[in-house]
Structures are given as structure tokens and as C-alpha cells.
UniProtKB/TrEMBL annotation:
Signal peptide bounds: 1-27
Domain Spondin stretches: 32-222
Lineage: Eukaryota, Metazoa, Chordata, Craniata, Vertebrata
One of the GO BP terms on file: cell adhesion
SMART domains the record matches: TSP1
Keywords (A to Z) from UniProt: Cell adhesion, Disulfide bond, Extracellular matrix, Glycoprotein, Metal-binding, Secreted, Signal
Localisation per UniProt entry: Secreted, Extracellular space, Extracellular matrix
InterPro entries reported in the protein's UniProt record: Spondin/Thrombospondin_T1, Spondin_N, Spondin_N_sf, TSP1_rpt, TSP1_rpt_sf, TSP1_spondin_dom
Record GO cellular component, one term: extracellular matrix
Pfam family, one: TSP1_spondin
Spans through the membrane: none
Protein name: Spondin domain-containing protein
Keyword Heme assigned: no
Length: 335
């Protein structure tokens, strides 16, 4: 197979447009082998489905400025000795900029350098952003015998440095190209920003921490947007489906969102509805106030607390004495 190198020195969007051609230079019939033996390749379609709904993730669900949505997807096909990102490892500067700001320029330079240095990258592709927490986007890509691994990353918007993605899934299994693959995706923290909530201001993590999966109990802090202590596991935030394209399929990559690759949200209704219970959260009680009443007679004193988070989806409600805002507790006292 002839080596192909593309050099592009323009904007990050230009990079995505140019590098995506690695998987779709010729819009012509292709012949795809079923075995991933030496010298063979295969082409796949990728469908990314966002499942970030207010019912599944009711806590601090972003409704505006900006509302819940997904960035464009950046994918790489590569050999086993390359990783665009890894859990429990430090994120590169490119992954940092993409996870925090959605900027892809540095990440693209890192991918290009890896391809030139160790010839580990076979192709780069992208898929359009999803303009909502739920919805779908799609793309197509090619894998090769010695570059049978797929990795990709999608930024969670808004978020401090959170993303979903796949690290190095091998599409060659037992000497054959896999026909279909479907994976649930869960949130990861890039370890570069210490914000707890979707809309947290920039708060750099010093020193940088490793990439870690976010769970219903990690980070273990009530302010965290994914903190659901009643759940053993978070529901999947997204899903990716990979399907091998049959022989003689016309293969080409659109460079801009179109009706063919920006799939309507209605197509997601096949999945069962997820309702994540959200319990009521209240503040601590204030100190007792002064005892009020006539001197020498029983008086009253009070303290208050406030509801921080109202229950949702059959979550634990506030006890009866907390229904007012603020909640007031009164007891007898002596002056």
C-alpha cells in the first residue's frame, strides 16, 4: 500500500475537512474483504447517538447559555501502538484543548506527528456536532489490516473538561472484520479543569490529574453534576454503533452537516425511556435564633434551612417540615 501524507496549514476546520479525505478520497465502488488478512481493508459507518436527556440526567441539566449539546466528533484509525487518549493516563495538550474548549488544532497536529513519526495513524475523520443532548450524527471511515483500531472523542457541551469516546477498539477479531459493534458511552474527566458542574467557570487543575471515568459516586461531592448516590451506575450518556459497509458500496464523506449525516432526533425513540431519580437536597440547619417571648414566660426560638435541589423523577421528597421556603423549625424555650 502506498504511503499517503497530507499537509495542511490553515484553520482547525480546514484540518478536519482535509484530514477527513483520508477515508474518502474517491467516491467510487470499493471491494471489501471479509477477512482482515494482510493487505485488506474495510469500511464502516459510524452513528453516534446522544442520550443526554433531562429525564436521564436531571441534576443541573443545562437548559441555556449554552444548552446541552455535543461537539463534533474526531475519530482516528490506527495501529495498536497509538492512543488519542487513555483512561488513567495524562491527557495530551491537544486533548486538553479539545475537552475544555472544543478546539481541534493542537490535537490534529499531534495526530499528524504520530502518523509521521511511527506511521501508526491510517486515517482521520470527523462527524458534525449534535445540537442537543439527544440526537444523532454519523460518518464513515476505513480501517486497514495493520491499522485496525478505532478511537474517537466527543466533547460534552457545556462542561469543564468532560467528554465521551472510545479508546482503541479493534475491528479485526479472530481474523475477520467485525460486522456490527454497539457500545454505550459514559463521561470522562480529562483531569485538566477542577470544575464540578456543567457550567463551572474555568478552574485549572494544578498539578494536572489523569483521565478518569466519572461515575455516580466519583467525584464524591454533592455539588458534582453527575453525583447520584442512589445509583450503582450512571445511565449511558451516549451510544456508538459501527456497521461494516457491504461490498460495492459507494463511499464518500460529506464535509458539512447534511440531511444524510445529521439524523433526526426522532430516530432515537427505539430506546427505552430512562428516568433517573433525583433526591431533594437541603442546606444544613442554621444556628438557633434568640428566644422570643415575655420575660418569665415560655418563649419560642427558631432555625431555618433551605432547599438547594428539588426532587425529580420520583426522587426522595423533602420531609413535611421542609416544604416552605425557607423551612422553619420552632421549639419552646425559657427566658
Amino acid at each position: 500500500m502506498a504511503k499517503m501524507t497530507i499537509v495542511h496549514r490553515s484553520s482547525p476546520l480546514g484540518w478536519l475537512a482535509t484530514l477527513s479525505l483520508l477515508c474518502g478520497i474517491l467516491a467510487m465502488p470499493v471491494d471489501i474483504e471479509t477477512e482482515c488478512s494482510e493487505g485488506t481493508n474495510a469500511k464502516y459507518s459510524l452513528v453516534f447517538t446522544g442520550k443526554w436527556s433531562q429525564m436521564a440526567f436531571p441534576k443541573q441539566y443545562p437548559m441555556y447559555r449554552p444548552p446541552a449539546q455535543w461537539s463534533h466528533l474526531i475519530g482516528v484509525t490506527h495501529s495498536s501502538d497509538y492512543h488519542i487518549w487513555q483512561s488513567n493516563e495524562f491527557a495530551s495538550n491537544g486533548v486538553r484543548e479539545f475537552a475544555e474548549k472544543g478546539e481541534a488544532w493542537t490535537l490534529m497536529k499531534e495526530v499528524e506527528a504520530a502518523g509521521e513519526r511511527i506511521q501508526s495513524v491510517y486515517g482521520v475523520f470527523s462527524a458534525p456536532a449534535v445540537v442537543g443532548g439527544t440526537g444523532q450524527t454519523s460518518s464513515e471511515f476505513e480501517v486497514y489490516t495493520r491499522h485496525s483500531f478505532l478511537s474517537f472523542i466527543v466533547r460534552i457541551v457545556p462542561s469543564p473538561d468532560w467528554f465521551v469516546g472510545v479508546d482503541s477498539i479493534n475491528l479485526c477479531e479472530g481474523g475477520h472484520w467485525r460486522e456490527n459493534v454497539s457500545l454505550d458511552l459514559f463521561p470522562f474527566d480529562a483531569g485538566t479543569d477542577s470544575g464540578f458542574t456543567f457550567s463551572s467557570p474555568n478552574f485549572e487543575t494544578i498539578p494536572q490529574e489523569k483521565v478518569m471515568q466519572i461515575t455516580s459516586s466519583f467525584p464524591s461531592h454533592p455539588a458534582n453534576s453527575f453525583y447520584y448516590p442512589r445509583l450503582k451506575h450512571l445511565p449511558p450518556m451516549a451510544r456508538v454503533t459501527l456497521t461494516k459497509i457491504k461490498s460495492n458500496h459507494i463511499f464518500s464523506l460529506p464535509l458539512e452537516p447534511t440531511q444524510s449525516n445529521q439524523i433526526p432526533i426522532d430516530n432515537e425513540i427505539k430506546d427505552p425511556l430512562i428516568n433517573t431519580p433525583l433526591d431533594c437536597e437541603v442546606s444544613a440547619w442554621s444556628p438557633w435564633g434568640l428566644c422570643r417571648g415575655k420575660c418569665g414566660e415560655p418563649g419560642m426560638k427558631r432555625r431555618t434551612r433551605y432547599i438547594h435541589l428539588h426532587p425529580a423523577n420520583n426522587g426522595q421528597p423533602a420531609p413535611h417540615w421542609r416544604k416552605r421556603k425557607p423551612a422553619i423549625l420552632i421549639t419552646a424555650c425559657e427566658r
